[in-house]
Amino acid sequence: MDPTKHAPDSSGRLVVLAAVCMAALALPLSFSVGAVATPAISDSLGGSPAAMTWITNAFMLAFGSLLMAAGTLADRFGRKRLFACGVAGFTLSSLALGFAPSITVVDMLRAAQGIAAAAALAGGTAALAQEFEGAAQTRAFSALGTTFGVGLAFGPVLAGWLITQLGWRAIFAASALAGVLSLGLGMPRMRESRNPHAGKLDWPGLAAFTIALACFTCGVIEAPSRGWGSAAVVGLLAISVLASVAFASIEVRAAQPMLDLSLFRYPRFIGVQVLPIATCYCYIVLLVVLPLRFIGIDGYDAMHAGWLMLALSAPMLVVPFAAAALTRWMSAGTISGIGLVIAAAGLHALDGALRNSMSLATLGSMVTIGIGAGLPWGLMDGLSVSVVPKSRAGMATGIFSTTRVAGEGVALAIASAMLAAFMQADLQAAAPQAQTAAIARAAARLTVGDLAHAAALLPEISPAALRASYHTAFSHLLDILTVVTLLCALAAFAFLSRVRTQEAEDAKPGDANVALP
C-alpha cells in the first residue's frame, strides 16, 4: 500500500466503498438497459440496423479495449484522479445522451460512456485495494461484485419502468444521477495513491489491439446488411487480421507489454479464458437479444420485458456465493464445468419453450441458464490467478479481464450476425422473387426487433410469416449457443477439473496471499 500520513477511519473507508459501488452500479445498468431501450430509441430517432446495434456494442467495445490501459494510467497518474475523471466523464456523457438529437450522436456518446467507464472501474478498484487490507479487502470486493450483480439483475426492470413512465431519455438521466452521487460521496474521503514504479503505457500495443477489436466488431456488425463479400466488410476483417498479427508481434518484443502472451504457455491458463467466453455466449448474449425479441417481435412493452428478464439475471445475486461455498467439496474447475452443462441444458430447454410463446417453461429455462452461468461467474476471477505463478497474478488478472469484457462485445456482434444470416436464408426461401438486398435489409431490421420496417421492405411477406422466420432463426441461434457452451464445458473439465480457487490454495502451508483488485 502507498505510504500516507494519516490512515482513514473505518467510516471513511465505508464511504469510499459506497462511492465506488455507486459508480459500479451504473456500469452494468448502462450495459443491460441498452437492449431494452433500443426499440424505443429506434422509434424516436430512426436509424439503420447497424446503428441500432452500436447502441450496445459501442459501449462494450470502448470499455473492453481500454480497461487494461486504464489500469496502467491509474497506477501512474493516481487512482483517485482517474476514478474522478472516469465518473465525471460518464456522468457528462449520460447527461448528453438525454439530449441526443440523432442515433449517430447516441452511438458516439455511448462510446464515450465506455471510455469513461473503463477509467472509473480501473481507478475505483485500484483505490479500494489501497483502502482495505486482508479480510476487509475481500469483503469490499465481494460487495463490489454484488453491486454488479444487482445492476445486471434489475437494470432491465428499471429501464422498462423508466421508458414506460418517462421515456428512454430518463434512463441516461438515472445513470448521471448515480455518477453525481458517487462523486459527492467519494471525492472528499478517497485518498490519492499511485505506484511510483509503474511502467509506461504500451501505446503501440494498445493501438494495435483497439484497431483489431474495432475493425472485427465493425465488420461483423455491417456484414448482415452489406453482405459478407462486400469490399467494406472484407476490408475491415482484413485490417483486423493484420492488426492482430501486429499486436502479437509488438507484445512479444515489448519490454513492458500490455499483455504478456507468454502466460498462454500454461494450458490451464488457456482453460480459464474459456470460462468468460462461455458466459458471454450462454448469458451475456441473451441479456441483449431476448429484450429485443420480447419487445420488437413478441409485442411486450418495455416494463413487461424487463420483468421477464429478471428470470435470467436474478440468479446472479445468489449463485456465485453458492459456488464459492461448493469449493469446499469440489474443485472450482469442476463446478464451473457443471455450471456450463446446466446452462447448456437451459438453452436447449429455452429453444423448445419459446416455440410455445411465453410460459412457465420459458421462465424456468431462463432461471436454469442464470443458475448455470452463475456457477463459473463466481469462480472465474479466483481461477485466473490460481493457474499461474503468483508473481504473475497481476498480469493474469489483466488478461482475464480483457478477455472477459472484450469478448462480450465480440460475442454480441457474432450472435447478431448469425441471427441475421439465419433469417436471411429463411426469408430467401419464403420469397424467392424478392431482391436479395431487400431481404438482407429486412433480416437486419428483424435482428434489432424492428418488425414494422422489415414488413415495409418485404410487403409480399406477411408480418406473421416474418415473426415465424425470426422464431426459426432464433431457434437456430440457441442451438449454436448450446453447442458453444457444451464445448466450453468440456474444455473446463479437461483443463481445470483439478484446479482449486485462490482461496483454497492460500489455505495450504507455505503459500502467500495475493491481493487482487
Write the layout of secondary structure elements.
Layout (H helix, E strand, L loop, with lengths): L9 H36 L3 H29 L1 H19 L5 H29 L2 H32 L3 H21 L13 H24 L4 H23 L13 H31 L4 H12 L5 H8 L5 H23 L5 H18 L2 H7 L6 H38 L5 H12 L3 H7 L5 H34 L5 H5 L11
State the gist of this model.
The chain is mainly α and 517 residues long.
Describe this structure in words.
The protein is an all-alpha fold and 517 residues long. It contains 19 helices and no strands. The protein has helices spanning 10-45, 49-77, 79-97, 103-131, 134-165, 169-189, 203-226, 231-253, 267-297, 302-313, 319-326, 332-354, 360-377, 380-386, 393-430, 436-447, 451-457, 463-496, 502-506. Helix 5 packs antiparallel against helix 10 (302-313) and helix 7 (203-226) runs antiparallel to helix 8 (231-253). The longest helix has 38 residues, at 393-430. The two termini are 12 Å apart. The model is unreliable at 1-7 and 501-517 (pLDDT under 50).
How does the overall form come out from the CA principal axes? Answer: globular
Quaternary status of these chains? single chain
Main sheet: strands, sense, barrel = none
Find the structural class using helix and strand composition. mainly alpha
Strand content: under 5%
User: What does the radius of gyration come to?
Assistant: 22 Å
- How many DSSP helices? 19
Q: On the 0-100 scale, what is the average pLDDT?
A: 83
**Considering DSSP H and I runs of 4 or more, what fraction of the residues is helical?**
over 70%
Which series of helices and strands comes N to C?
HHHHHHHHHHHHHHHHHHH
Q: Uncertain runs with pLDDT below 50, 5 residues or more?
A: 1-7, 501-517
What is the tally of beta strands? 0
Distance between the termini: 12 Å
